[in-house]
Amino acid sequence: MEGVWVFLLAFLTCGYFALAGFDYGVGVVLRLVGRDERSRREVLRAVTPFFLGNEVWLVAAVGVLFGAFPRLEGELLSSQHTVFVVLLAGLVCFTVAVQLRSPGWDFLLVGGALVVVVGWGVLLGRVLGGPVWLWGAGMPVLFSLHGAVFLAWRLSGGLRERAVRIAGLLVLPSLVFVVAAVVTAGSVPVPAFGVTGVVAVGLLGGVWATLRSRRHLVAFCCSAAVCALPVLGVFGARSVVTVSVMADVPTLRVLTWAAVVVVPLVLVFQWATWRMSRAAR
Amino acid sequence: MDALGLARLQFATTTSFHFLFVLLTLGLVTAVAVMQTRATLSADPVHARMTRFWGRLYVVNYALGIATGIVMEFQFGLNWSGLSTFAGDVFGAPLALETLVAFFLESTFLGLWIFGWDRLDKWVHLALIWLVALTAFASAFWIMMANAFLQNPAGHELRDGVLRMVDFSALVTNPTFGTAFLHVCFASLTVGGVFLTGVSAYHFIRRTAEVDFFRRSLRLGVVLTALATPMLIGFGFGQFPVVERYQPDKLDTVGALDGMGLGFMIQIGFVLLLVSWVTVPLLFRDWVVRLRFPLYLMVVGIPLPFVAAIGGWLFREVGRQPWLVQGVLTTQDAMSHVSRDQMLVSFIAFTGVFAVLAVADWVLIARLARRGPASSESDEAPVSPLVPVL
C-alpha cells in the first residue's frame, strides 16, 4: 500500500516538472525566441492550451503529499520556508503575467518564470545536499532547454528555427550541469544517482540528435524526461521518503479508491486535449 | 504582532482573497452550464452567445484563481506544520481528495471544454461543462469536510502521539459538515446570480443594443438569486443549533470582529432575499429596465454577497480560537517553527501578490464585461490568452 503512494507522489511530481517545466521554460526564453510583439504572442499561444492542465499537477502532488505523507509535508515546507515563499510569489506573478499579458510587463512574465525555476533548483539542491548555487543555476538551464524544445516542436517557420538554435545552445550547459550535479552529490547514495546521471546524459544526447534530424516530438519527450529525472533522484535518496512520514493504512486506503478512478481519467482527458490541439495546428 | 498573530492574519487574508475567486467560479460555472444546456436544446443562437460571453468571464476568474489555490495549499505546510504532523492523517485525507477528485479533474475537464469549443460534438461539450460544475462543487464538498473536522473532530483516535483515522464515514456524517456545505453552495449560487444581474444591469444603463441578450442574462441572474437566497438563509440559520451543541463557546464569546461578520452576513442575506423577490414581478414586460433606478442598485450590489461570505467565514473561524482543531490542537501548537521575520516576509509577499492577483482579475473581468458579447479581437486591450480561443 505504501509503495503505491510513493509511486503516485513520484509520478505526479515528475508530471509537474515535465509539463509545467515547459511553461516556465517558454517563459524564460520568451523574449529570445520572440523578437517582436507578434511573434511573442505566437510563442505564448503555443503554450496556452496546456497551461491549466499543467499547473494542476503541482496542486495534485502537494495534495497527495499532505494526505499521504503528512509528516514529510510539514517538515519539508516549513524548513524551506523562505525558498517556497519566493517561489510561490514568482509563480503567482508568472500566472498573472501570462493571463494579463501586455508588452510593457514582460519582465513580470520572464522574471516570474525565472524565480520559479531557480527556486526549484535551490530546493532540489538543498534536499539532495548538493551545492545550492549549482542547482539554482542548472535547473533553469534544463527548463529553458525544455521550453525551447517544446517551441521547436509546436511552432513553424522562422520561429521554429530560432527555437531550435536556442535549444541547441542550451544542450552543452545542461550536460555540464548534470555531470557537475552527479559529481558533487552529497547525501544521495552514489550508485543510484550515478545511474540517473548517465540516463540524463543519454537523454540530452537524444535531444541534440533528434533536433538535428528534425524529429521534434522525440526531442520534446527526451527533454521532458530530463526535467523529471531530478525528482527520481529525490526519491532515490532513501532518507527523504520513508514509511514513518506516511499516513496510516486506513487513510491510504480511502485515498487509493479516489486515485484509482481519478488518475486514469485525468490521463485520458489530458491526452485528448493534446490530441485536439494537434489536430488544430 | 508576534509570529502567531502574523501567521493567523496571513491565513485569514489569503483565504479571504481565495474565497472571492472560488465563490464566483462556483456561481458562474452553474450559470454557464444552464446557458449551455439551453443552447444545446434550443435553436436560438442567443443561448450559445451567452454561454460564450459568460464562459469567458468564468474562465478568466478560474485561471487566476488557481494561483491563489496553490498558495493556500502550500500555506498549511509552510506555516502550520504542526497541523499536518499531528492531524495530517485525518485532516489531510479530505484535502488530498479535494485536489485529486475535484481540482485535478476539474482543470482537466475545463481545459478540454475551452479547446473543444466548435471541435467536439455538442453533447460531449455540454457534458464537459456539467462535469466541470460537478467537480467544482465536489471541491467545496471536500474542503468543507476538512473544515468541519477542525470544528468538530470526528473519526479519529490518538495513537503514538498523532491522530490516526479510524472511521472515514464519521468525517462524512460530521454534523458540522452537511449544513455548512449546503450553505456555501447556495452562497456561491447567490454570488453568481448577483454578478449576472449586476453586469447585465450595467449594460442596460449604457443602453446596450443587445437587449435580448442582456434581458435573458438579467432574468437568469434575478431568478437564480431569488431561488438561492431562501435556501442560503435556511441553511445558515440551520447551523445555529449545531454550533450551540458542539461549539457553545463560539456563540458565548462573540468578539467584535466575528460578531460584526455574522451581523453583516445576516443582514446582507435578508436584503438580497427581499430585493430579489421584489424584482421577480418587475421582470414582467421589462419594468425593471424601464424604471432604470433598480439597475443602479443592481450594479452597486455586486460586492455585497462577497462581503457577506467573508463575514460568515470570519465568524466560523475566529469563533473557534484558541483551537485549530477544536479541543485537540491549539493554534499556537500547530504553528511551524518559523521566525517572526520569516513570517512577516511571507505575509507581505503573499498579501502583495494576492492583491495584484485580485486586481488583475477584476481588471480583466471588467474589461471583458464592458466589451460585451460582440467583441472584435484585434486592437482592443489585451485579455487572457484563453479568451480568444473561446
UniProtKB/TrEMBL annotation, chain A:
Transmembrane regions: 6-34, 46-69, 81-100, 107-127, 133-154, 166-186, 192-210, 217-235, 255-274
Family matches, as InterPro entries: Cyt-d_oxidase_su2 (IPR003317)
Pfam families the record matches: Cyt_bd_oxida_II
Coiled coil: none
Keywords, ordered alphabetically: Cell membrane, Membrane, Transmembrane, Transmembrane helix
Membrane topology note: Multi-pass membrane protein
Family that this chain belongs to: Belongs to the cytochrome ubiquinol oxidase subunit 2 family.
Protein name in UniProt: Cytochrome bd-I ubiquinol oxidase subunit 2 apoprotein
TrEMBL record, chain B:
Keyword Chloroplast appears in the UniProt entry: no
One GO term of the biological process aspect: aerobic electron transport chain
A cellular component term, taken from the record's GO annotations: plasma membrane
Gene Ontology MF term list: electron transfer activity; heme binding; metal ion binding; oxidoreductase activity, acting on diphenols and related substances as donors, oxygen as acceptor
InterPro entries per record: Cyt-d_ubiquinol_oxidase_su_1 (IPR002585)
Membrane spanning residue stretches: 16-36, 57-78, 90-115, 127-150, 180-205, 217-240, 260-283, 295-315, 343-365
Major location (coarse): membrane
Annotated localization: Cell membrane
Topology in the lipid bilayer: Multi-pass membrane protein
Superkingdom as given in the UniProt entry: Bacteria
Claim: Electron transport is one of the keywords in the record: yes
Record keywords, A-Z: Cell membrane, Electron transport, Heme, Iron, Membrane, Metal-binding, Transmembrane, Transmembrane helix, Transport
Family: Belongs to the cytochrome ubiquinol oxidase subunit 1 family.
Cross-referenced PANTHER family: CYTOCHROME BD MENAQUINOL OXIDASE SUBUNIT I-RELATED, CYTOCHROME D UBIQUINOL OXIDASE
Protein name: Cytochrome d ubiquinol oxidase subunit I
